[in-house]
Amino acid sequence: MDKLAQRLPAGGGSPLLSLRGTGVALVTPFTSTPERAVDYEALRRLVDFVLDGGVEYLVVNGTTAESPTLTTEEKAEILRVVREHTAGRAPIVYGIGGNDTAAVERTIRSTDLAGVTAILSASPYYNKPSQRGIVAHYERLADAAPVPLLLYNVPGRTASNLTAATTLHLARHPNIIGTKEASGNLEQCIAIAAAKPDDFLLISGDDMMTTSLISFGGVGIISVLANAFPRRFSDMTRAALAGDFAAASQLLFGFSELNPLMYEESNPVGVKTALDLQGVCSGAVRLPLVEASESLRERVKQLV
């Protein structure tokens, strides 16, 4: 039995559920009032929108959720609302990360992870730890976690890279089941795919590299675009997983103009604008982010 099948019941999920396909890094809807309060009705609407659109699982409180600006109480309530509203329709992955290992460990131990399939934890930012430090950080978190742990490598945000060698070393830990790879380095991803254990999940963290990673062993994506375009994106991912790369590529090409706009004024400004234009939630974000400029909004509108 592989690690994922062994560990899923401890997190309240079913061993039949899988983190294969399209996971969506849920945004946190806010009201357009000056307080920018969490809009829980819009959150429920978003959950329905993406699940009805065919995504396989939800990622709650990732960095796309503007998690650095959420209070501890808000994070707990967001997880509770998503868990209750999802009602077992899809697995839930929960984001817990940071650059203070002891604090992240305390958060893991104090968080109610009932119904959570896995934790997604971004590599420590700003500190720029050595590879030995990254290994020690993740091993400590994995030892503390009551559910499986997914690594998250996003050097463009953290200023440090989990090398292929580091990822493969951590893949041997019994409670580390995969990695969200957003390095943009295909050679590094290929090296991970070539030598990883069979039960270690290679998940794309870059929407436009999804089909490429699947072609050499990736199992799917944790997506930003799938917030606003769940049907198109999940169809693309499923086509690639089925080996129909011609169909997957055509769907991928359809995102080529849109994807850069998602990040032009920082994530999740672009995707929240696309959601606003579709009536799912407002485009409101919390400082230090600001809402999309009129120029960006107009260009997104032309492609939605």
What does the secondary structure layout of this molecule look like, with pairings?
Layout: H1 3-7, E1 21-25, H2 40-52, E2 57-60, H3 72-86, E3 92-95, H4 101-110, E4 118-122, H5 131-144, E5 149-153, H6 155-158, H7 164-170, E6 176-181, H8 186-195, E7 201-204, H9 210-215, E8 220-223, H10 230-241, H11 245-253, H12 258-263, H13 269-277, H14 294-301
Keywords summarizing the entry:
304 residues; 14 helices; alpha/beta; globular; 8-stranded parallel β-barrel; TIM Barrel
Give an overview in words.
- The chain is an alpha/beta fold.
- The protein has a single domain (3-254), classed as Aldolase class I (TIM Barrel, Alpha-Beta Barrel).
- It is 42% helix and 12% strand.
- The protein is built from 14 helices and 8 strands.
- It has helices at residues 3-7, 40-52, 72-86, 101-110, 131-144, 155-158, 164-170, 186-195, 210-215, 230-241, 245-253, 258-263, 269-277, 294-301; strands at 21-25, 57-60, 92-95, 118-122, 149-153, 176-181, 201-204, 220-223.
- Strands 1-2-3-4-5-6-7-8 form an 8-stranded parallel β-barrel, surrounded by 5 helices.
- Helix 3 links the parallel strand 2 and strand 3 (92-95).
- Helix 13 (269-277) crosses helix 14 (294-301).
- The longest helix is centred in the first third of the chain and has 15 residues, at 72-86.
- The chain is globular and about 45 Å long.
- The termini are far apart.
- Residues 4-17 have low confidence and may be disordered.
